[in-house]
Write a structure and sequence with these properties.
Pfam families: ADH_N (PF08240), ADH_zinc_N (PF00107). This is enoyl-[acyl-carrier-protein] reductase. Keywords: Fatty acid biosynthesis, Fatty acid metabolism, Lipid biosynthesis, Lipid metabolism, NADP, Oxidoreductase, Transit peptide. By secondary structure, this protein is α/β, with parallel strands linked by helices. It has twelve helices and 15 strands. It is 30% helix and 22% strand.
Length: 329
């Protein structure tokens, strides 16, 4: 069986190895074997490969935090899951391989008739977007939030889920070419990052006091997001696409009572009852099936091109996700 393995952390294109590994053993009680259709390369995957993620797996390891596939073998005692069924893989299954064995209770059925690449991205970003909107700051209909990296996969989910709740979004992007797609998705305000961002947001929102700023970039972007918030607002840092530490102006902290906190999906998921999480996951996957959210895919790669794939995923200025297709195609 073909798979990607990491034996040592380092630059992503150097850390990944394409090789033959043993087939999964036959599934035992409560287990199933899944043939992986598609699995994305997420920023968290790249951080793991680099050895700088918050929780690193024991080496050697097969990367891939999410994906979709079809059940090809079912162990004793499994109910409700059959051969041929399409399923979303559990978080952290190690999806960068052709086949993987998992617990049946940890997957959810995935709809037919939806591109595998879209379903492969139906776990991490939708769940993170939901909790960023609901678990940290009390936002109601008519309230504003501001987010950077708004054209990213999670940014698109935030726009969609906020719109469902009547929350208005101010969306900061890096390039003017990204503006129209977000407006079509339902974004209220879309602005290109840069000088006097706060003043431009104040003008676009007619002086609305913004309670929540979502920062996926860090570095100077954190400062700019904080400067856009109303007094007592909260900046939530959940990524570091810039590779730089985030910082906030002392004046914002002291005189405007701006708060800064972090969010890590893995840590938050540990506090959610399993059945509640499954029901939420099913609902979000349903939005993918209805095409309410479609994340652009810039390129797909087979496993044997993994070094090209991770190099592409690291490239600035991409227009979409990079997705691995272990079965080819």
């Amino acid at each position: 069986m073909k798979a990607i393995r990491v034996d040592a952390f380092g630059p992503p294109a150097e850390a990944v190895r394409f090789l033959e590994v043993p087939e999964p053993e036959s599934p035992r009680e409560g287990e199933i074997t899944v043939s992986v259709e598609a699995t994305p390369i997420n920023p968290s995957d790249l951080l793991i490969l680099s050895g700088i993620y918050g929780a690193l797996p024991r080496l050697p390891t097969v990367p891939g935090k999410e994906g979709v596939g079809r059940v090809i073998d079912v162990g004793p005692g499994v109910r409700g899951i059959e051969r041929g069924m399409r399923v979303l893989l559990p978080i952290g299954a190690g999806a960068w391989r052709e086949r993987v064995k998992v617990l049946a209770e940890d997957v959810i059925p995935a709809p037919e008739g939806v591109p595998a690449a879209q379903l492969a991205m139906a776990t991490l970003n939708p769940l993170a977007a939901h909790f960023l909107l609901t678990a940290l700051v009390n936002l109601g209909p008519g309230d504003f939030l501001v987010q950077n990296a708004a054209s990213s996969a999670i940014g698109r989910w935030i726009v969609t889920l906020a719109k469902e709740r009547g929350i208005k979004t101010v969306n900061v992007v890096r390039r003017a070419s990204q503006v129209n797609a977000l407006r079509e998705l339902g974004a209220n305000v879309v602005l290109v990052d840069g000088a006097e961002l706060g003043k431009r947001i104040t003008a676009a929102t007619r002086g609305a006091s913004i309670k929540l700023g979502l920062d996926a970039v860090a570095g100077g972007a954190t400062t700019r997001i904080a400067g856009c918030l109303g007094r007592g607002g909260t900046v939530v840092s959940y990524g570091m696409l810039s590779g730089q530490p985030g910082h906030i102006a002392t004046n914002d902290l002291v005189f405007r009572d701006i708060h800064l906190r972090g969010f890590w999906l893995a840590s938050h998921l540990a506090t959610i009852p399993k059945e509640e999480l499954r029901e939420l996951w099913k609902r979000l996957a349903g939005l993918v099936a209805s095409s309410a959210v479609a994340v652009p895919v810039e390129a797909t790669y087979t496993l044997d091109r993994i070094k090209e794939a991770v190099t592409h995923a690291e490239r600035e200025g991409r227009s979409g996700k990079i997705v691995l297709v272990p079965q080819g195609g």
